[in-house]
Amino acid sequence: MIEIIIGILLTFMIIGSIICLETKDLLSAIIAIVPVGYFSGIIFLLLGAPDIAITQMVVEVLSLIILIRATIRRDLTTIEEERDFFGLITTFAFIFVFFIFAMEALRYLPPFGSPAFTLNQNAPSNRYLLNGLKETGAANIVNSVILDYRGYDTLGEATILFTSILGALAILRVYARKRKKNE
Amino acid sequence: MNNEEKGMSLIVKTVTRWLKGFIFLFGAYIVVFGHLSPGGGFPGGVVFAATFILITLAFGREYALKKIGKILASELDSLGALLFLIIATLGIYFTGIFFSNFIEKFHPTGNFKLFSSGTIPLCNISIGIKVGASLFMIFIILSIVRVVFEDGKGKLITTEKKREK
Q1: Which of A58, A150, B62, B92 is buried most deeply by CB count within 10 Å?
Q2: Residue at A162 is within a domain
Q3: Is the CB of A142 less than 8 angstroms away from the CB of B40?
């Protein structure tokens, strides 16, 4: 049953992406990309990952607001240029290569519904699930993983966010800083 | 155009005035209870940012910037990042390991208590502050600056009032 629902949602996501690629109007493109974010949130919820579902939903709403309000303001931007033929060929070649490798890799995955860590008893996720509450005291295992076991990852994520804000501030600054007069 | 600067209609303003506290409270709940229920620092911080973006959309940019300015937002951004780094570095001081959980992890009466699991809630709070401030700053920057085309050339202008001096 859950596979059918996920299949339907994935179909809508693919349709939305294709419409987003093919439409000429930027506002329509942004509205057409919405199902990709929302339905992936619903899929995360169906698969039993509420943490990621909350993050996906909230970030989707925020990015939609930022895209519509901040980048497209009063004037509607339309795209009239033809698509680059060489770029299209390269994209399809990459998709083909990726597809071959993905088919090879997907053969080693466990069947749908059985967790991936059951294949290997020594996998780290086994330890997180069995001893997570005992070792960290956090009832939410996801939080104990991202902030205790894998704190470095979160530190790197925070650094990336910080640096991106710094870059946006530096690029989008309109007034140049004045030089000192005695120079 | 002048209308947009002052925000949306009266209905939107009233609903925003009633709802903004609850939305902020929800974000705080997600952050503080991140180690017990689904959530954590990142989604809670995004909800914080969404509160201020809602205020910006409803009341106009000047009102929101009066509540939390660009400088305060960037200070909060840096403060969150520094807090997280300080908590991580204090692990070296107490146990000798970077990012170790050095505070007492268990509540005496059992699991599922708010004051448990050591440094994880503190990390959640610092990340929440950081993410909220930085996403609000992104919105403010992108909504202040816009590109204007003059004689076929793109030009970056700001709609912010020029500061004195």
Answers
A1: A58
A2: no
A3: yes
pLDDT surpassing 90 at residue A15: yes
Smallest CA–CA distance, residue B94 to chain A, in Å, is 15
Distance from C-alpha of B17 to C-alpha of B4, rounded to nearest angstrom = 18
Whether B95 contacts chain A with CB within 8 A: no
Q: Out of B49, B78, B120, name the one closest to residue A148 (CB).
A: B120
Please state the domain count of chain A: 1
Whether A92 is in a domain gets the answer no
Find chain B residues with C-beta within 8 A of A136's C-beta. Answer: 101, 105, 117-118, 120
Number of domains in chain B: 1
Residues of chain B positioned with their CB less than 8 A from the CB of A55: 42-43, 46
Residue A161: C-alpha distances to residues A37, A172, B41 (Å): 20, 16, 13
Q: What percent of chain B has pLDDT over 70?
A: 81
Burial class (CB in 10 A: 0-12, 13-18, 19+), B59: buried
Residue A137 and residue A135: Cα distance in Å, rounded?
Answer: 6
Nearest to A143 by CA among A63, A54, A62: A54
Note whether residue B151 is domain-resident: yes
Q: What residues have CB less than 8 Å from B58, skipping those under 6 apart?
A: B7, B8, B12, B13, B16
Query: Does any CB of chain A come closer than 8 Å to the CB of residue B89?
Result: no
User: How many CB pairs lie under 8 A apart between chains A and B?
Assistant: 146
In a domain, A170, yes or no: no
With respect to residue B163, please indicate whether it lies within any of the assigned structural domains: no
Reported in sequence order, the residue ranges of B19-160 that DSSP labels E, i.e. its strands, are 145-150, 153-158
B30 touching A, CB under 8 A? Answer: yes
Range of the domain at A63: 1-81
Judging contacts by C-beta atoms under 8 Å, the chain A residues touching residue B137 are 165, 169
Q: Do the Cβ atoms of A16 and A32 come closer than 8 Å?
A: yes
Alpha-carbon distance values, A76 to A16, A19, A35, A167 (Å)? 20, 18, 22, 27
pLDDT band at A171 (very low <50, low <70, confident <90, very high): confident
The residue segments making up the domain with residue B56 are 2-158
